[in-house]
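Worked Example 4.2. Consider the chain below.
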Amino acid sequence: MTTFDALFFHFFQHYKIKRNKKANSIATFYVTILQCSLLLLLGVFFAGFFRQMHVTTMSAPKAWALFILVSVFLYFKNWMQYGGRKRKVLNAKMLKKKKLSYNIWMLWLLPLAILGLTFVLFQAI
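Applying the procedure from the previous section yields the following structure tokens:
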């Protein structure tokens, strides 16, 4: 079980109590936003690194188009992964383990902090 699986089930269990019908959608959205923000941070880091090394790999519009395509792919991958049988199997495994005790507000601020770090890094290059 990956870190993203654990975070998905933490969100799923938290929102299952409050919003039973939307819990899966909210958890899938959160995991996708977190993965996309990490992908953006890595992309900005490598863009700055390649610029310092004077390597021209691809133009900025092509890089943004690639980021959007990968983000859509990540959403559909997460939707397929956490919407079917695998979610039920992982949910059964998570019920046996101790529940995670993360603060839900801190987890919502995690992608925002990553995006803030990305913005600072983007301004630096």
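The radius of gyration is 17 Å. The first helix runs from residue 3 to 18. Compare this with Example 4.1 before moving on.
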